[in-house]
Amino acid sequence: QVQLVESGGGLVQAGDSLRLSCTASGRTFGTYVMGWFRQVPGKEREFVAVISPTGITTYYSDSVKGRFTVSRDTRKNTAYLQMNSLKPEDTAVYYCGARLGTVPRTVPGDYPYWGQGTQVTVSP
């Protein structure tokens, strides 16, 4: 079991940047695949980005490619999501998820551990 805590959300204008962080408990952070997902009221949780335990392999949804960057710092037990050129449609609650393994996954159901979420609101 691992506990995840997200932070960094807020209210910004379209075109601005924001960086989210996800800090994990314990000393096994380097063995987890870390994924970022987002959800709006009335819709299912959707995939945003994922990073492998090594930090070398990353994947992004088509809607955020070229704008978002996922990274991780093993020494700080933290994963990051750098969001640039934000759009109003990026508005959502953002969640980080973790799963033990080496294969990146893009389906929410594949992640057994989740943070509490952080609100990101982008004004037009």
Description:
This protein has 124 residues and is mostly beta strands. Helices cover 0% and strands 49% of the residues. The protein has no helices and eleven strands. The strands form two sheets. Strands 2, 4, 5, 6, 9, 10 and 11 form a seven-stranded mixed sheet that branches. Strands 1-3-8-7 form a four-stranded antiparallel sheet, with no helix packed on it. Strand 4 (32-39) and strand 5 form a beta hairpin. It is globular and about 40 Å long. The termini are far apart.
Mean of residue pLDDT values: 96
Shape: globular
Number of continuous helical runs: 0
According to DSSP, the number of beta strands is 11
Order of helices and strands: EEEEEEEEEEE
Assembly type of the shown chains?
Answer: single chain
Stretches with pLDDT under 50, minimum 5 residues: none
Strand content: over 45%
